[in-house]
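user: Please review this fold.
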Amino acid sequence: MNRIKVLTVFGTRPEAIKMAPLIKEMKSREEFDCKVLVTAQHREMLDSVLKLFNIEPDFDLNIMTHGQTITDITSRVLYGCEEVLDKYTPDVILVHGDTTTTFAASLAAFYKKIPVGHIEAGLRSENMYSPYPEEMNRRLTGRLSTYHFSPTKTNRENLVREDISTKNIVVTGNTVIDALLQVVKKDYEFEDEMLKSIDFENKKVILLTCHRRENWGEPMEEIFRAVKSIVKENPDTHLIFPMHLNPIVRDAAKSILGDSDRISLIEPLDYEPFANLMAKSYLLLTDSGGVQEEAPALGKPVVVLRTETERPEAVEAGTVKVAGVKEEKVYQISDRLIRDKSYYESVANAVNPYGDGKASIRIADYLLYKFGILNKEIDEFK
């Protein structure tokens, strides 16, 4: 039997988390010869996920340098992927989402006339500069791809509006739910002493993540002032903020949030403790895309700290509330979720629109179908 040669390419922690269950699924099937290329666009955070999911890269470009620009990343990934593609000659490459690694690897494959499969295809914010550069990365990747694995029907509709053929689009659910269900455990115990000391049963723990480039400066300061007021005026709350490594984020956080005994500024967490911290928290405030998908699967309301989201399904389902970046609005929405129990429960109990834990199976089956090995069409995620 001729095995399908698949090269999976990723470079950041979120990509690794979402690609890991798919890699494990393909490696479990004899029909695939699956190789892993990491660019290490983010080195340390990527390595922790590879270790967690026991993934050994076959190719490692190790491109990360101090102070790297988007242009640096793009050019190094493009050159590095070209060499690997010449060496391995895959039948298809799989990329994920919207990183610069994703776009550059897709371009490298296009230059070699190798089909691209785009995992998490079809997300759109309709603002080319927000999130930046991710919105344009995902649009360009979409034009370069042959196969489009959309998490939701809305994502598929976005692609159809851009004249992508429906015969090459399949709705799979999001692989992040596959990953999440593998690592969250009811009896999970934190190693971090501070997290061990938190009374998750009797405190309303607020988990904050905030790092996006477009929020740097005044927007981030307004967000931090809002959450400080929320904690101050709700004595049953405790805020935990795993600070991004960027000094712009850390300096602002320490300046505004650093003087409260119910605000814990901690170092970034590996994926497993972070996922379990989400599960134990009461409320999440985030400008991250992935958290908007993960938290609904855990029954946790999310306040989105951005002016728009490319994940409207959760807004429509009611699991996510878009607050923007203005202090007053962030405060009002978050404070209501903390004080109004019936409102909180209506958000927490809304249906998760992002997946059922079987996205990786659907993607693998679809590739077998497209390569003529599997005869039946795929049952899509509803």
